[in-house]
Amino acid sequence: MNDNLQTLWQTADAPPPVPESLRDRAARLDRTLRWRDVRELAAVAVVALIFSVRAAVAPELPWGALGLVGLSLWIGGVILSVRLRFPRASPWMPLRDSLRAEHRWLSAQTALLRWAWLWYVLPITAGVVAFDLSDGHGRPVYLTVVGLLGAALSWANWKAADDLMTTRDAFAAHLHDLDHA
Amino acid sequence: MSPTDARFAALLDAHGPALWRIAGAYARTRPDREDLYQEMLLQIWRALPSFRGDAAERTWLTRIAFNVALGAVRSRDVRKTVDAPLAVDAAPDREPDPHAAADRSDALARLFAAVRQLPEIDRALVVLSLEERPHAEIAEVLGLTVSNVAVRLHRARARLAAALTDPVPL
Q1: By CA distance, what is A93's nearest residue in B?
Q2: Residues 31..90 of B with a Cβ closer than 8 Å to A: which?
Q3: What is the mean pLDDT of residues B82-87?
Q4: CA-based, 20 to 30 A from B6: which of A24, A43, A103, B89?
Q5: Do B70 and B106 lie in a common domain?
Q6: CA gap A85, A78 in Å, rounded
Q7: What ipTM does this complex have?
C-alpha cells in the first residue's frame, strides 16, 4: 500500500469517549439472550406440566391432554436439537469461520421458521383440537378460531423466514467472495 | 477499577483509534459510525473474559471488529442511510496551516469514500493494509492463507486506486 495513503489514513480523528452505559448495556444484552433461550423451553415445560396435571386429575379422558404433553416435548426437543447442532459464531473467530458458522445458524433458523407450520403450528393446532374433542366439547367457533390462529402463525413464520433469508444470502455472498479468489 | 476494566481501558488506549477507523470504513454517517464503534466495544467487553491468548490481542480485537462491521452493514439501520455523507475529520492540531489542514481533511474524506466504494471483503483487506498489518496477520483475521491475501490485496489495491481516480461525490 502506498505509504502516503497509510499515513493519511492514520491521521483520522480520534474515537469518541467510551460511554459510561457500556457495561450496563452489556449486562442487559447478556440477560436478554439468556432469558430468550430459557423462555422458549420454559413455555414448553409449562404447557407439558399443565396438561400432565389435567390428564392426572381427569383420567377418564386423558388422551387429548397426553397428546399435548407429547407435542410440547417434541417442540422443545426440536428447538433444543437445532440450538445444539447449529451454534452461533463466536465474535472472535476469523471472519471466514464466523461467516460460515453464522450462515449455518441462519440456514437452520430459516428452515425452522419456514417449516414451523409443520413441526410447530400443525401439531399444536391438531393437539388443541384433539384435546377439545377428547374433552367432549368440539365447539365449532372455538375450533375455527384455533385454525385461523394457526394459519396466521404459519404465515407470520413464513414471512420471518423470508426476512432472515436476505441476511443469510448476504452471508453466502461474503463467503463466496472469500472462498473464490 | 476491576482488572477487566483496566484491561479494557488498556486495549482501547492501544487499539481504539484503529477500531474507530474500521467503523468509518463500514458506516455511512457519523451516527452510524458511532453506533458501530459502540457495538464493537460492547462485543469486546463481553468477550474479554473469554480471551485466552490463542491469538495476539490485536488480531483478536480486529476479528471482533470486522465480524461486527460486516454484520452491521447488513442491518436495516445502516442500509437506510446510504445516501447520507460521512463526515470524516482529520485529527486536530497536527497541521498548523489551516489551508493544509483543510486539504488533508478533504483528502482523508476522499480516501474514506473510496474505501467505502469497495466490496466488503476487499474493503477489509484494504483497511487492514492501510492499518499497516502484515499479510500473516491479515490472513489470521480473515481466515485466508497468506498467499491468498497477497493475491487479493493486489486486486483490492487496484480497485482502490480506481476509486480514488474516479471518486464518487462526497
Answers
A1: B63
A2: 34, 37-38, 41-43, 45-47, 50-51, 55, 60, 63-64, 66-68, 70-71, 74, 88-90
A3: 51
A4: B89
A5: no
A6: 11
A7: 0.84
Q: What are the C-alpha distances in Å from B101 to residues A4, A8, A11, B108?
A: 15, 12, 11, 10
3-state secondary structure (DSSP) of residue A60: coil
Residue B102 has pLDDT above 50, yes or no: yes
| CATH number for the domain that contains residue B74 | 1.10.1740.10
Mean pLDDT of all residues in chain A?
86
pLDDT, tens digit (0-9, with 9 covering 90-100), for B11-46: 999 999 999 999 999 998 999 999 999 999 999 999
Same domain for B12 and B70, yes or no, is yes
Domain of B129 in residue numbering reads as: 96-170
Q: Where are the alpha helices (DSSP H) in chain A?
A: 3-9, 22-57, 63-85, 95-114, 116, 122-134, 140-179
Q: What is the per-residue pLDDT for B80?
A: 46
Residue B44, in any domain of the structure: yes
Q: How many domains does chain B have?
A: 2
3-class SS of residue B84: coil
Residues A104-146: tens digit of each pLDDT: 999 999 999 999 999 888 888 887 887 777 766 667 888 888 8
pLDDT at site B79: 45
The enclosing domain of B114 has a CATH number of 1.10.10.10
d(CA B76, CA B71): 11
Domain-located, residue B86: no
B4 and B75 share one domain: yes
Number of inter-chain CB pairs under 8 A, A vs B: 129
